[in-house]
Design goal:
The complex is a heterodimer. By secondary structure, chain A is of the alpha/beta class. In chain A, about 40% of the residues lie in helices and about 15% in strands. Chain A has 2 domains: about 130 residues, Alpha-Beta Complex (Aspartate Aminotransferase, domain 1), CATH 3.90.1150.10; about 240 residues, Aspartate Aminotransferase, domain 2 (3-Layer(aba) Sandwich). In chain A, helix 3 runs parallel beside helix 8 and helix 9 packs across helix 12. The longest helix of chain A is centred in the last third of the chain and has 39 residues. Chain B contains 6 helices and 3 strands; from the N terminus they run αβββααααα. Chain B starts with 8 loop residues before the first helix and ends with a helix. The chains are: A alpha/beta, B alpha+beta. At the A-B interface, helix 9 of A face helix 1, strand 2, strand 3, helix 2 and helix 6 of B.
Chain lengths: ~375, ~170
């Protein structure tokens, strides 16, 4: 039988069977609309509020500070646009990093057209923002700083606690996109001075279609979706309860094992990184060697191109990716890899392997067995190989 | 499963087992096309000999490619299509023929077939040049077109470099 090894957990995760079990009653039995007054509605409302508490608890927030959305993209759009338009009287300046997810990059670009001013901060060779740069970039009319917690492509963890501190001192709202880190590394919104935080269900073994935005009490923000006034008026739409219940169950599971799982994955990740760098000539790690997500390994290999690698691995039963799943249709090299200083031709040769709950050591061993062969073969075809 | 990624079975077959790859020593003509920035570079080598009728034919052909699945598959196909053909015939190979041999290519990858066709015509152009022979008009036109596109891409590359510098300055 064909091997099927999933090493693309950063793109999306399978739903944990325990989550599936928790969700099932919410399709036909507990199907009520949370806005209905009758018992079906109230049963649904109760489940919604319980879910809210569970998710709030994972980041040490209050339940009423969690707004459910449909995706991290929506949460990030709400954070940027909602803050921008609610605070435009204070100012029109927003600071982001140059390696944000496309949904932040594109929202910022759109805001620029609407008359807002965007500063995109440079990152170092590991992809880290320098908190000093934030300090220098903040102006009187700055209304928001948005820096992701961990990068989706290269896995680098940003110094958000320091950035949060600076923003708090300067009285500027601080948003962080934690889609990749939520459930994998501990987050404390108070300790880290976070005002807004994006989290997503399908990156942490919950279903697709559920995400949230943490909005600290007292923050001025306006909704993108107007209607029946769900989610404290910040996100009208009938509540997608089954997905949200699943999101909450996924949080419960992550919370219980967060430390142990993180250690297990870090060990596997480090083995993978070390052996690849040791055993494959002209291979390089993208991102920070230590301050990175426990499940992310991202390399670039000289002389070859990423998509050929991904398809070769696919033929051998390994699901990997060149960068982010969203950009695989584009032909331009990744903005993240260019921002950390890779040349376009180097960025074309990148490979992301992201691990998760069901990754076993023997799968890592299999990757280590076949990857050097794949690279050797592609290099034999390449005009740039050494002779 | 009929497709792997966005590719047909035939594309994958060519990609898995490419024909005629590797470097050729003492090639009679070499065509180098593509650009690293875009992520596709093809080098095509030809060896020319005369057939029984005294016409020049592509006796041997090899390729080296840096690029995606489509780039490698189209490189392999062009070598199959060109091998044994007279130079006159080889010049006339169009990208449509390459795409057809592969059972289709995703729209976003059509440029790979253009690249493969260009690599071949550039190799033949190089052969004529080396022999100091008169370049057929058709070939000269193709060469001019490829040169023009090279220029456009290197302009684009400059923009990339500028963008990179901008990012690093913050």
């Amino acid at each position: 039988m064909r091997k099927k090894i999933y090493m693309d957990y950063a793109a999306t995760t399978p739903v944990d069977p325990r989550v599936v079990k928790a969700i099932l009653p919410y399709f036909s039995e507990k199907f009520g609309n949370t806005m209905s007054l009758h018992f079906f509605g109230q049963e649904a409302k109760e489940a919604l509020e319980e879910s809210r508490e569970v998710i709030a608890d994972l980041i040490k927030a209050k339940a009423n500070e969690i707004i459910f959305t449909s995706s991290a993209t929506e949460s990030n759009n709400l954070a940027l646009k909602g803050i921008a338009f609610a605070n435009k009287n204070k100012g029109r300046h927003i600071i982001i990093s140059s390696i944000e997810h496309p949904c932040i990059m594109e929202s910022a670009k759109w805001l620029e057209k609407e008359g807002f001013e965007i500063t995109r901060l440079r990152v170092d060779g590991y992809g880290q923002v320098d908190p000093d740069d934030i300090k220098k970039a903040i102006r009187k009319d700055t209304i928001l700083v948005s820096v992701m917690h961990a990068n989706n492509e290269i896995g680098t963890i940003e110094p958000i606690e320091e950035i949060g501190k600076i923003c708090r001192e300067k009285e500027v709202y601080f948003h962080t996109d934690a889609a990749q880190s939520f459930g994998k590394i501990s987050i404390d919104v108070d300790k880290m001075n976070i005002d807004l935080l994006t989290a997503s269900s399908h990156k942490m073994y919950g279903p697709k279609g559920a995400a949230c935005l943490f909005i600290r009490e007292g923050i001025k923000i306006i909704p993108l979706l107007h209607g029946g006034g769900h989610e404290s008026g910040l996100r009208s739409s009938t509540i997608n309860l089954a997905a949200i219940v699943g999101f909450a169950e996924a949080c419960e599971i992550c919370k219980k094992g967060i430390k142990k799982e993180s250690q297990r994955l870090t060990k596997l990740r480090d083995k993978l990184i070390k052996r690849v760098l040791d055993e494959i000539e002209e291979s390089y790690l993208n991102g920070h060697p230590k301050k990175r997500l426990p499940n992310n390994a991202n390399f670039w290999f000289k002389f070859i191109e990423g998509e050929s690698m991904v398809i070769q691995l696919d033929l051998l039963g390994i699901a990997a990716s060149t960068g982010s799943a969203c950009s695989s249709e584009k032909l331009e090299p990744s903005h993240v890899l260019l921002a950390i200083g890779l040349k376009p031709q180097e960025a074309h040769g990148s490979l992301r392997l992201s691990l998760g709950r069901w990754t076993k050591e023997k799968e890592i061993d299999y990757v280590l067995e076949v990857l050097p062969k794949v690279i050797k073969k592609l290099r034999e075809i390449s005009p740039f190989k050494k002779h | 499963m009929n497709k792997i990624g966005p590719y047909t079975k035939k594309v994958i077959e060519y990609f898995k087992k490419p024909h005629n790859y590797g470097r050729m020593k003492n090639a009679d003509g070499v065509g180098k096309v593509g650009n690293l920035v875009c992520g596709d570079v093809m080098w095509l080598y030809i060896k020319v000999d005369k057939n029984k009728k005294g016409k020049e034919v592509i006796k041997n052909i090899k390729f080296e490619t840096f690029g995606c699945v489509a780039a490698i598959a189209t490189s392999s196909v062009i070598t199959d299509l060109a091998k044994g053909k007279t130079l006159e015939e080889a010049i006339k190979i169009e990208r449509q023929e390459i795409v057809k041999s592969l059972g289709g290519l995703p729209a976003i990858k059509i440029h790979c077939s253009v690249l493969a066709a260009s690599a071949l015509s550039e190799a033949i152009y190089d052969y004529f040049k080396k022999k100091q022979r008169k370049i057929p008009r058709e070939l000269e036109e193709k060469h001019q077109q490829i040169e023009k596109e090279k220029k456009i891409i290197s302009e684009k590359y400059k923009e990339w470099i500028k963008l990179e510098e901008k990012m690093h300055q913050g």
